[in-house]
């Protein structure tokens, strides 16, 4: 393990190196303290939740792997998340899905859910200083089928409209209790496997359902809508496509969720930031890692994620973006997955904040293309890692790879005994 003295020394050198480029690392560390991820609750148990129902994961999403020790109930999930958080510097939010309500073994159908099932989450959040976000759940239910909010069958549509309205009321209750807006994401899996000839009709139905859902105005919750390219088993058509939601959200002046797994391999999610923020007030992110499809691999410090965070900082949009994570991988230690993905997202943000942006902009405006590219390349080998180590040290969490042993210890003591 690295000695504290070594970390401090390395940081001082890094600080000087960055200062020479006009970057104040102390200020960046303060900004990092204020960069809150919204950690998704569903990595801990492979998107299972606590509904008293039978049946697997549906809705075109899929978890692969059977790594032992997944959280089996609400207490285990809470323990796991708190433990993961103890290995991630800073203070973070938790993003809940409706199926993670505290149902206490009782069957509560989706159109019956009320804030009371989230009361213990609110208390838990208060106790640990963790703010909550929320999602309605269209998948893994007898009425999910291929179509929910866009189903031509009015009774099914109404069922999901009711569910979504109730989820907004729950989000409002959470937001009010925590005195900070709860962000509720609306993603529905609606689509079809094969050539679809009634595309317009389903979208019209979806639009109408959404209009009903969003009719009521709340002051302690914020809505966002999330698109997708395709789902597994729903490959030919997605009702809530990117174009659909972009148009819908701009018309309604609402937030859009950009899930980094939901775009074509050659499409840049980073480039969407400056294009979309001109028309929508805010963005929600689901930071993921697509491989071949929306595979929801654990987030790592890859180029698309670094580009995305750089674009946010460059657009001066730090406060107009909410930083959710969204991946689920059951092939490896799930706590480790939280820590790797959260730390990776933070490192991408840190590197974005450490960019000598003023000089880069000057170069660009003066058409000094060589200088711009050269400095961008050089930024890659600046000692940003010393700043991240300092950030961990300041937050009293393991520095560098030393969290591996901690995760192993938790596995030996807790998750392997399940
Ligand atoms: C699915 C969407 C959605 C889900 C979660 C579980 O493609 O990304 O956000 O992953 O709601
Ligand atoms: Zn998502």
TrEMBL record:
GO cellular component: cytoplasm
Catalytic reaction list: L-rhamnopyranose = L-rhamnulose
Source domain of life: Bacteria
Cofactor(s), by name: Mn(2+)
Positions bound to Mn(2+): 262, 294, 296
Family that this chain belongs to: Belongs to the rhamnose isomerase family.
Name of the protein in its database record: L-rhamnose isomerase
Annotated source species: Barnesiella viscericola
């Amino acid at each position: 393990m690295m000695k504290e003295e070594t970390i401090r020394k390395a940081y001082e050198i890094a600080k000087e190196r960055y200062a020479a480029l006009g970057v104040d690392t102390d200020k960046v560390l303060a900004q990092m303290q204020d960069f809150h991820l919204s950690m998704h609750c569903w990595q801990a148990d492979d998107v299972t939740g606590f509904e008293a129902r039978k049946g697997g994961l549906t809705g075109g999403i899929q978890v692969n792997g059977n790594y032992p020790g997944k959280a089996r109930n609400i207490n285990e999930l809470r323990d796991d998340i708190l433990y993961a958080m103890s290995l991630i510097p800073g203070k973070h939010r938790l993003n809940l899905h409706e199926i993670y309500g505290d149902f206490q073994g009782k069957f509560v159908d989706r159109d019956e859910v009320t804030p009371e099932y989230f009361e213990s989450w609110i208390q838990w959040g208060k106790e640990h200083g963790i703010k909550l976000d929320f999602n309605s759940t269209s998948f893994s239910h007898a009425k999910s089928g291929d179509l929910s909010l866009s189903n031509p069958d009015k009774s099914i549509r109404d069922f999901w409209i009711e569910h979504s309205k109730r989820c907004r009321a729950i989000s409002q209750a959470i937001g009010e209790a925590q005195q900070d807006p709860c962000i509720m994401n609306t993603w529905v899996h609606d689509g079809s496997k094969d050539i679809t000839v009634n595309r317009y009709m389903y979208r019209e139905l979806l639009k109408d359902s959404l209009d009903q859902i969003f009719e009521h105005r709340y002051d302690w919750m914020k809505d966002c809508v999330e698109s997708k390219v395709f789902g597994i088993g729903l490959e030919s058509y997605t009702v809530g496509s990117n174009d659909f939601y972009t148009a819908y959200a701009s018309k309604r002046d609402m937030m859009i969720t950009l899930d980094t797994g939901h775009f074509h391999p050659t499409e840049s999610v980073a480039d969407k930031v400056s294009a979309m923020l001109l028309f929508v007030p805010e963005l929600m992110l689901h930071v993921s890692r697509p491989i071949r499809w929306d595979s929801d691999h654990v987030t790592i410090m890859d180029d698309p994620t670094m580009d995305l965070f750089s674009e946010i900082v460059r657009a001066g949009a730090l406060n107009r973006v909410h930083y959710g994570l969204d991946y689920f991988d059951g092939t490896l230690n799930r706590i480790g997955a939280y820590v790797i993905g959260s730390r990776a997202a933070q490192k991408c943000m840190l590197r974005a904040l450490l960019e000598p942006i003023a000089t880069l902009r000057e170069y660009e405006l003066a058409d000094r293309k060589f200088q711009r590219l050269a400095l961008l390349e050089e930024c890659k080998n600046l000692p940003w890692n010393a700043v991240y180590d300092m950030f961990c040290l300041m937050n009293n969490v393991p520095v560098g790879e030393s969290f591996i042993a901690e995760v192993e210890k938790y596995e030996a003591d807790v998750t392997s005994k399940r």
